[in-house]
Amino acid sequence: MANLIALLLLSVAMIFQNTIVTQVHLLYGAADLMMLVLISWVLQSNQETNLWLGVVTGLLVGISSAVPIWLPVIGYTFLVWIVTVAQRQIWQVPIWLLLISTFLGSLLIYGIEVVYLLVVGVPLNLLEVLNIVLLPSFVLNMIFVLPIYAVVGEIVKAVYPQKVEV
What we know:
Layout: H1 2-19, E1 25-26, E2 29-30, H2 33-44, H3 51-64, H4 70-90, H5 94-119, H6 126-159
Antiparallel strand pairs: 1-2
Helix pairs in contact: 1-2, 1-3, 2-4, 2-5, 2-6, 3-4, 4-5, 5-6
């Protein structure tokens, strides 16, 4: 049941990403709602592994964007792996891990896309890409991450109810 809810949540996030969030720009940067929902779910769910969520999110983003489908699959799956390892091994403070994961996830996802564009021969000025696309995207992701974390947290509480001892 929890897997179905997670899949449904990611599908709704993809619809919002493609219809509403892409209309909210800061210079040429846009928020990555799929990444924010994915990180929020991974940090709050009780599942041992969420790598399949990274693959599904990558497939959804790859299908709905112009980048090759394998780029987001690799990026989001690697992001889920990093967040899971960091949560288990390193850091137990979820809000700091959320903010750091959002920053590193933005850097990872956009970095993979920029490197791919450079490899295929698209002429990019890296300073302009950083100033006009990446930094505004970081800002928008940081603005949207806390409300999304709260909403996903309420959904996770409904899916994984807390056990009450009497």
